[in-house]
């Protein structure tokens, strides 16, 4: 198995650390490095998933190109990045993108095509999702009559908080809110249709956007196992939870351990690490039609 990358360091560059990414500031550009860290239940787990960061980076680059949406990506080719002279390039291979810096719009643009997770819990209680009234009688994992846009506020730590579209307007203004809703729904429909042809249901996903010189760009990651709920189409059965290509496997194992989610999480066993890695790589290969290039 490939060696996992938990941390990166680039000489002379200041680093900001997210849950999964290390972010380096290069003035009007950024280097985003997807490490193999994995988070669950608002904790970064002590055990990495080898190759996970490369899957996220390569898959996002694939989608940016396929979708053709205005976005922040400049290159994923290390030879085209202005790296300092003594940079350890080996730790960056396959997991680094060079992007334009934008002013991030502080909204998670969530689109749901199926009812699952927190949306299913809310629907059971109130018949709504983020204030949107849904038809009665839906079962867990049912496909919705039409995809819905359910924004959330971005949280640096802890859970993102679901908000109504009206609350989103209060935060970013009506013009931007309407544009982000329309673009998010359009991108989701295109991506979901493409994925379904390749045997993957994208049950829900989230997008992020930023502004640069008056233009709104798609940023961060797109349709990855970290930002989306991927289900295998050949075993899809409404009325229950679905098997998944994302980190649900890790969440399920953590739930089985009795961990209280308030203290540091346990180390993942080797078989959970291996199976999770295999799921991420399978998602990449199904969606791109390419062999995963990093062993």
TrEMBL record:
GO terms for molecular function: ATP binding; phosphoribosylaminoimidazolesuccinocarboxamide synthase activity. It catalyses: 5-amino-1-(5-phospho-D-ribosyl)imidazole-4-carboxylate + L-aspartate + ATP = (2S)-2-[5-amino-1-(5-phospho-beta-D-ribosyl)imidazole-4-carboxamido]succinate + ADP + phosphate + 2 H(+). InterPro entries: SAICAR_synt/ADE2_N, SAICAR_synth, SAICAR_synthetase_CS. Pathway: Purine metabolism; IMP biosynthesis via de novo pathway; 5-amino-1-(5-phospho-D-ribosyl)imidazole-4-carboxamide from 5-amino-1-(5-phospho-D-ribosyl)imidazole-4-carboxylate: step 1/2. NCBIfam families: PRK13961.1, purC. This is Phosphoribosylaminoimidazole-succinocarboxamide synthase. PROSITE patterns: SAICAR_SYNTHETASE_1, SAICAR_SYNTHETASE_2. Transmembrane segments: none annotated. Keywords: ATP-binding, Ligase, Nucleotide-binding, Purine biosynthesis. One of its GO terms (cellular component) is cytoplasm. Its EC number is 6.3.2.6. Residues 16-264 form the SAICAR synthetase/ADE2 N-terminal domain.
């Amino acid at each position: 198995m490939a060696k996992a990358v938990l941390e990166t360091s680039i000489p002379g560059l200041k680093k900001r650390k997210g849950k999964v990414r290390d972010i380096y500031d290069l003035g009007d550009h950024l280097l985003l490095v997807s490490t193999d860290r994995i988070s669950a239940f608002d904790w970064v787990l002590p055990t990495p998933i080898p190759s996970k960061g490369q899957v996220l980076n390569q898959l996002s680059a694939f989608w940016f190109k396929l979708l053709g949406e205005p976005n922040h990506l400049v290159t994923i080719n290390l030879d085209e990045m202005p790296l300092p002279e003594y940079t350890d390039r080996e730790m960056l291979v396959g997991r680094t993108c060079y992007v334009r810096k934008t002013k991030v719009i502080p909204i998670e643009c969530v689109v749901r095509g199926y009812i699952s997770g927190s949306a299913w819990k809310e629907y059971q209680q109130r018949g709504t999702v983020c204030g949107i009234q849904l038809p009665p009688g839906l079962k867990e994992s049912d496909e919705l009559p039409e995809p819905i846009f359910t924004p959330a506020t971005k949280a640096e730590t802890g859970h993102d908080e679901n908000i109504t579209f009206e609350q989103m307007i209060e935060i970013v203004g009506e013009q931007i809110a309407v544009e982000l809703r329309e673009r998010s729904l359009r991108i989701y429909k295109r991506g979901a249709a493409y994925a379904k042809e390749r045997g993957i249901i994208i049950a829900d996903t989230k997008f992020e956007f930023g502004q640069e010189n008056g233009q709104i760009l798609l940023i961060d990651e797109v349709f990855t196992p970290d930002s989306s709920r991927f289900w295998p189409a050949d075993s899809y059965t409404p009325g229950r939870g679905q098997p998944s290509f994302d980190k649900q496997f890790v969440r399920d194992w953590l739930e089985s351990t009795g961990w209280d989610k308030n203290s540091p999480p346990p180390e993942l066993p080797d078989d959970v690490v291996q199976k999770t890695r295999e799921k991420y790589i399978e998602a990449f290969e199904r969606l791109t039609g390419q062999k995963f290039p990093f062993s």
